[in-house]
Amino acid sequence: MRAVVRFAAWLYAIAVYGFIFLPVVVLVLFSLQATSFPIPPFTGPSLRWYQAVLSDTRLTSALANSLLVAVLSSLASVTLGFLSAWGFARFVLPGSALLRGLITLPLTVSYLIIGMGLLVLFNWAGVPKSLLAAGIGHVVINLPLCFAIIYSQMGDHQINIERAARDLGAPEWKVLLMITVPVMAPAIFAGLFLSMTFSWDEFVISFLLTRFETTLPVEIWNLLRSGLNPKTNAVGSLVFAVSIVLVVFFELTLLRRKPA
């Protein structure tokens, strides 16, 4: 009976992971297709379509734009999220519960609604569609995530360390930079890398708030309008690879810090 249960557990695990990763495997496999159609039979492996992607100036420009927006918007999100979390955790503010709820509210709102709202706001304010507008939109959706992660890790033991530093004569800015930030580094890195991952492949807000300079997901959508081909598979594989690198780097960073 135990063997049957174990076999069923393995079968269930294989089915779950297959359901999750099979589309990605198929995507990567047919990005290596030698012919012009991403359909069986497989005629690779070939790097023809990766070379086509890297020689396409529109795609490489969109790739650079995505990296720029992801890095800068994530840095802004984690900075604002950390300062907000620190303020709520260390000071008694009137209506703090309501204010915390308002900060995390965008987590429950559709990206489409947020993007449309920002589009109307920017049109009213005279802000043109651009990478800057898209970056602001990414900060709007990622700041609540960074705030929630960092605020959840701020505890009383850190207050005692900060108080000890103040008793020794450290000014508030030194306490913040040399005590609070290092102690909260795992949560800060978690917010940063998750924000970069979400910003890197975010489509809806980038589509609504950019025009001439676009990000990679928008360019992928433009390619898909003409139908599937191995080039779109190659671009998708590159997007997936960058996301995996960010996640692995995040995991290695946390594992390296755990023994300390």
Automatic annotation (TrEMBL):
Gene3D superfamilies the record matches: MetI-like
Membrane-spanning ranges: 7-32, 67-89, 101-125, 131-154, 175-200, 234-255
**How does the UniProt record describe the way this protein sits in the membrane?**
Multi-pass membrane protein
Q: Name one Pfam family in it.
A: BPD_transp_1
| Main subcellular location | membrane
Location in or out of the cell:
Cell membrane
Q: Which UniProt keywords apply?
A: Cell membrane, Membrane, Transmembrane, Transmembrane helix, Transport
Question: What family is it from?
Answer: Belongs to the binding-protein-dependent transport system permease family. CysTW subfamily.
What protein name applies here? ABC transporter permease
What species is this protein from? Mesorhizobium dulcispinae
UniProt lineage: Bacteria, Pseudomonadati, Pseudomonadota, Alphaproteobacteria, Hyphomicrobiales
